[in-house]
């Protein structure tokens, strides 16, 4: 009640008790749009008998005389701004409009209209000769043949090498032509080398299907990522390199072949074209950023490592050939260490004394 008394004085409440007069709260005379229009009319009109703003307020409270017949004030609005003049692209711009339009620059070439069906483009302008014979080789000589003398020496060296070999291939070239392999590198796994290394050693040397089975039932967290990568690597080897298709083509071995691996493990191979993991190694990747929220608003910065897995897939033909090479080398070494008897020849120059 104290606040209401401060806002509306009690004298006003008493005066409002009179019959026929109602209490109206005090209003502030703000500078509104109708009042601005009224002042503008007062300044432009020379008739002093026109009612002012105070007389309109007295008429509103019923304190003035007879109501005035003057027209109500009107609001004057400003005229719209003139249209903005916008420029256009230059005559030689690649973003020029399709149809020719007036440009700000009088001089210059303006784009023409697109040719219609009635006006086809000439064949000479539409077809451009971009064959290799029309290129200037002298301009590209510095890039195509930067060292002509070195290139000539290298070509001579290769010709001499082929003549000396008489067309025979080296062992490395023969292996690369007759055997297939596929190298596949995975994406970055959010794990460490210490955790991924044992899994890589577990699948190395195993058949691809056996390795997939091992990762499917492994309890390691990273085994799921390795499983997906092995399946992807197998598909890539089959599609791009044509590996593992001997059984599908009916080229299975007549009888299984038993071999001994480098570790001394004995294996029986029924399909020489099947895929196995020759090598598997881990690659160190970048370090990420993670946050460890602790007590009292403290945050520790973590640097989780990222690693990837690379697998080299080969066919069982390669493992059989490597086993045969090891057996041949070991047999040759054993023969060199065998004891041989002295040759049977005549004894000559006998003497009863030792020669030494």
TrEMBL record:
UniProt KW NADP keyword: no
Ranges annotated as biased composition (Polar residues): 40-58
Tagged with keyword Chaperone: no
One Pfam match: Ribosomal_L22
Gene3D superfamilies: Ribosomal protein L22/L17 (3.90.470.10)
GO aspect biological process, one term: translation
Keywords for this protein: Ribonucleoprotein, Ribosomal protein
Family that this chain belongs to: Belongs to the universal ribosomal protein uL22 family.
Listed name of the protein: Ribosomal protein L22
Organism: Aspergillus glaucus CBS 516.65
Organism taxonomic ancestry: Eukaryota, Fungi, Dikarya, Ascomycota, Pezizomycotina
